[in-house]
Write a structure and sequence with these properties.
Elements lengths: L1 E6 L6 H9 L2 E4 L4 E4 L6 E7 L13 H10 L7 E9 L6 H15 L7 E9 L5 E9 L17 E3 L13 E3 L8 H22 L26 H4 L5 H29 L5 H21 L24
Antiparallel strand pairs: 1-5, 2-3, 4-6, 5-7, 6-7, 8-9
Length: about 325
Amino acid sequence: MRVQVLKRSAGRSAVAAAAYRAGERLHDERQDVTHDYSRRSGVEHSEILLPADAPQWIKGIDRETLWNRVEAGERRKDAQVAREIRVMIPREIPQAERIPLIRQYVIRNFVSRGMVADVAFHNGLASDGKEQPHVHIMLTMRPLSPEGFGKKSRHDWVPDPDGRTHPDGRPVMVESNPDSWNSARYYEETCRADWERTANAALTRAGSDQQIDRRSYLERGLARLPEPALRLAFHLKELRGVLKDRFGQFQFARHYRAVEERAKAAFRQVDIRSPSSVQAFERFHQWFDRQIERLQPAPRDPPGHERTYARNPTPDLER
């Protein structure tokens, strides 16, 4: 799950974002620009969800009218116009169950709090050639009122009422309004935790032994490097600049994971009572050292120095 805020200061438009995610043709009245994404593929379904007590003026509203009204209600040039949550849906969850599952999740966590949700289901091709089901959830930043959109639900950072302090004596800062729609704690401890439970329950019903975990590798006590998302870099034949570095990070993470898996397998086979175990451990220790050396940057040759290589170098293979 990823959360981002669409900011006007970054050149973002809620109308343009909604048109792209829903695969529709929408006219932005503020900028007098028409955004046409009606020919894009991968959009399986889209819908707008309203609170149960929504006022009459917004019932039956279409996507273009909704986001133009949101844009018209923001006067500042650096206004935050919408929030977007991108949720990855496990492939193992049956297709017929995905839309009802997300719909109930959105109503439970956002719409019930007064937000209007514009939901778009996408299913593209992942880097492994399989499907990549995910959903884009665009949320309004202001609560509804009988006349339009009201004031934003905000919070300030204040010293902890319980008097907690950091080791250096500075007070621990907490959110003054836990019900704020911008609350980072709410999105982490409620929304992300709820999706973890919801997705895992759906995986269990589907008969899958796979489970998701919102915690990082570090929080879970795993000695593993996270693999960076390649996105465009994966589909390019020739990598340049930052893309090449990102691909290098990906290869580094994969190699580190392979070393970790090899280590676990070796330790499972070691029997400390067997005389051959010491030799096996020494062989593995030497192999591990060679992997560490492979991860070190190659030394640079001094000017004028030419390096010579053996004609038939022996590959470093562990049998």
